[in-house]
Amino acid sequence: MNTLNLKLKPLTIKNIDEIVALDKICFGGLWSWETYQRELDSPNCELLGIFSCGNSEVLLAMGCFWLILEEAHITILAVNPQHQRQGLGQALLYSLLKAANDLGLERATLEVRISNLGAISLYKKFGFKTAGRRSKYYQDNGEDALILWLNGIHKPEFQANLTQWYGMICDRTLP
Ligand SMILES: CC(C)(COP(=O)(O)OP(=O)(O)OC[C@H]1O[C@@H](n2cnc3c(N)ncnc32)[C@H](O)[C@@H]1OP(=O)(O)O)[C@@H](O)C(=O)NCCC(=O)NCCS
User: Fold this and answer.
1) Which CATH number does the domain housing residue 67 bear?
2) pTM for this entry
3) Which of 122, 126, 150, 165 has most ligand 1 atoms within 8 Å of CB, for mutation?
4) Which residue in 25, 35, 76, 107 has a CA-CA distance of 20 to 30 Å to 67?
5) How many A from CA of 119 to the centre of ligand 1?
6) Cα-to-chain-centroid distance, residue 99
7) Is residue 175 included in any domain, yes or no?
């Protein structure tokens, strides 16, 4: 049972210090303050956060996708390590896919390290399929990336998936 009081909302420039700090904890500093500022300013970028709401709001998880033509390119999915395995990652992925569906986008894609079995398992749970592999994609250790795609997110039948996933995430996290 999750005892945190959680809130999902779009990230804004007011959250930027927390965003950069979460990036550092989760990715070791993938994007800089300036990069996030650009992302937050961009009309083609959707950035969502999950906050715990006590006396003050604390950013626990964040996700981002770029709108490229009819595609959602998921660029960031990150949950504070102290709050992983509590359903926040799936709540966030659901919310990104719902936002993409609301925007009328047709498919979602992302790259993930081949060693990141937890993330791969999460994406597969939401129906992502492996479409290919980018050799030595990650510069820090030369690791390969898997390219995953989820097609048909604009189709009426995808609504049934969203409804089912909403039930799943409500059971664990968001009210
Ligand atoms: C990947 C990440 C976002 C998952 O977030 P999370 O909140 O821990 O995931 P959830 O608790 O919502 O898990 C949902 C599902 O994902 C899978 N999963 C998540 N973490 C897993 C792990 N460590 N091992 C195996 N499966 C895992 C499971 O299928 C899980 O479903 P289950 O709880 O029914 O078993 C989180 O581990 C993270 O931020 N990692 C660091 C950053 C990163 O690697 N991001 C992805 C870049 S592509």
Assistant:
1) 3.40.630.30
2) 0.96
3) 122
4) 25
5) 5
6) 11
7) no
Residues 6+ apart with CB under 8 A from 28: none
Alpha-carbon distance 60 to 50, whole Å? 6
Ligand 1: nearest atom to the Cα of 86:
11
Whole-number Å distance, alpha carbon 63 to ligand 1 midpoint, is 13
How far apart are alpha carbons 157 and 117 in whole angstroms?
Answer: 28
CA-to-CA distance for 80 and 62, rounded, in angstroms?
A: 9
Each residue's pLDDT, cut to its tens digit, for the chain (175 residues) gives 355 789 999 999 999 999 999 999 999 999 999 999 999 999 999 999 999 998 889 999 999 999 999 999 999 999 999 999 999 999 999 999 999 999 999 999 999 999 999 999 999 999 999 999 999 999 999 999 999 999 999 999 999 999 999 999 988 775 5
Domain tally for the chain?
Answer: 1
> Residue 74's domain spans which residues?
3-170
Residue 123, Cβ neighbours under 10 Å: how many? 23
Ligand 1 centroid–CA 122 distance in Å is 6
